[in-house]
TrEMBL record:
Domain Aminotransferase class V: 58-308
Gene Ontology annotations of biological process type: organic phosphonate catabolic process
Annotated protein name in UniProt: 2-aminoethylphosphonate--pyruvate transaminase
UniProt source species: Candidatus Odoribacter faecigallinarum
Domain of life: Bacteria
Amino acid sequence: MTKRNYLLLTPGPLSTSESVKRAMLQDWCTWDKDYNEGVVTVIRRKLLEIAGLDEKEYTTVLLQGSGTYGVEATLGATVRPEDKLLIVANGAYGKRMATIADYYHLNYVLVSLKETELVTPEIVVRALDEHPGITHFSVVHSETTTGLLNPIEGIAEVLRGRGITWIVDAMSSFGGIPIDIRGLGIDFLISSANKCIQGVPGFTFIIARREKLEACKGVARSLSLDIYAQWEEMERGHGKWRFTSPTHVVRAFFQALKELEEEGGIEARYIRYCRNHRALVEGMAAAGFRTLLSPEKQSPIITSFLYPDAAFSFTEFYDALKQRGFVIYPGKVSDADTFRIGTIGDVYPEDFQRLTKEIRDMREG
């Protein structure tokens, strides 16, 4: 057993279990049947299983790179020149979609909200009314810029029956927050290995409605980010990737999926993350820190806290916590001084009780 040098209290990469780390100790051949059929194909099937999806209707694509690679690949392969994309953003990751659209010269509309404002059904309705001809809609579910959790259930009712292709960045929510992909009518959901499944960084994955993915043939503007071609190769080659896959990372994810099932699935993990968040917020309140967001807007993934006073130094605070075995995140909000603490990963309520006790001691000392 290796000793952790600190707990990563971030939205990913995050603290992983010892067994996930150990899974990376063996080398794998990308052409080998044991790897392609015994690991990759099983991962693709398990992702559909934990999402409650039928493989006749939905499928999965694994792709090398970070979550942003998955978002870029999906936008670049689904939005044709004649299409019109609507992006509603309330943070850095929604705005990043617009940056991708600029690079790809997509026909798009960006509705940019305040970073503390939810993407509500009313906002989506108004945007659709003001911008006729929308064929694709993309939004971030869990916006880790602040910790907002956008109400995709209400948005689904707005989109229903309009024939709009719905793309959801569920990077830091899939696997940790229940999402009824089929019931909500989501066509493409994107996440990453190093988030709520609790694997390590190295690949992103897309859960897609089969008929929508099949319609992407020949649309991609990038060779390596062509999700249709990647999917076609994985289907034909029984899990084979077109280009060298991150084998150790993939095997770690295989182990992480097993541990998710052993924990009781997404519902059980969601309950733990909520308990982590509650322990954090209560402990921070006792130490004199207020949250940026009100409870009804807040996800159990990451929480933004306001600086307690004008003399507060985040750098000193960060360094002191790191010496005590905890690593947190700086703030990312434009008009408020904040820092962020993540509550996902192989971490538990007692970890946040220890963290907040250290913070109280630091403040009192």
